[in-house]
Amino acid sequence: MKVICDRSALLEAVNTVGSVVPTRSPSPALSCVKLTATKTGSVGALSLAGTDAEVAIALGLSKVDVVQAGVAVVSADRLRAIIGSIDEKDQTLTIELDGDNCHIKGTRSRFKLFAFPANDFPPLPDMAQVTGGPTPPRATFNVPAGTLLRLVNRTAFATARETSRYAINGVLFRRDGKKLEMVATDGRRLALCRASLKAAGEGTGVTSAIIPTKCLGLLTRVAHDPEGNVKVAITDNKAFFAFEDGEGKEKSPRAVVSTTLVEGAFPPYEDVIPKDQDKKITAAREDLMRAVRQAEILTNEESRGVRMSFNNKDKSAKLFSRSPEMGESEIELALSGYEGENIEISFNPRFIADALKMVDEPEVLIELKAPNKPGLFKAGADFVYVVMPVNLPS
After folding, report:
1. Pick from 68, 89, 120: which residue ends a domain?
2. pLDDT exceeding 70 applies to what percent of the chain?
3. One domain, residues 343 and 302
4. Can you tell me the distance from the alpha carbon of 193 to that of 182, in angstroms, rounded to the nearest whole number?
5. Whole-structure pTM over 0.90, yes or no?
6. CATH number where 171 lies
């Protein structure tokens, strides 16, 4: 194998693929990236692949000159470090496999990296094998990359990081005809975002799958073109996302991300969303974000809460926070609208800020019932966020 690559494009690709590869693994090949150079006529392409045995990615690179087709399997960490260390003035790099040695050359740099046998790298199924195999997926449909990115950004932040309830370590991905929604919860908050598809795709009925957060983070790194198409396939135990940025159905996807689904049953999230809130508050998103962040300054791990007092008479709110060893704060906030009686309720400010920074609507709607009942935050017609209140000492 011998290829000449654009240095910056190669580094970006190696960084993306390397984010999947585990730093330590009982299988040496799993700590590697697989480089596959192909050539059809005068057109060459380089594909980089990496996996941790659960999440996998195959990423295509078109800015290459393939002198000789072939396959090289090398350490992801070492390859990333080598490319990153080469002078940025080197616009191209040459990668050449000679037996068990992979040579990486810049203008004034030469590296020899030991390569692993190509057969040691685990095989990764491509989208054509999945959709054209003897057992069809449960569902196959298309979604714009920008829509998928919005769904991921507005939900993934609310997943549980460490819990024995494995099902909430991921995000529920649910397709019902042309309706698509993602839901995440950590037991103290719940984020739900909806979108509509242009076509229902293949597969009947409701299809649900729990996608691990590591895979979702990878999707955000790959979704470069918001207008690009993402073909999604859900099987009994895996999900596949093929990013089709190029024009023409005959062109191979730029990237394919696949993952093993999280096992378990996702909580009945519809039951968590309050239906009888009688206090409705409208606030400018940026103003509310600023007030919450200011109030958060004087909180600590023991008093991780901000008391929010809403006043109907003058359409205003006050945010109070206090830390015994640091001090206290009082932040005033003007509201755009208020329906209902006055109420005082306390929330973890980090939970509120996490949601506000993920939406771009100019205003948010807050629906409340009582100080000990969950709060409901809405942005636009497709985003719903439920937050449990916290108890603060008086």
Report:
1. 120
2. 96
3. yes
4. 6
5. yes
6. 3.10.150.10
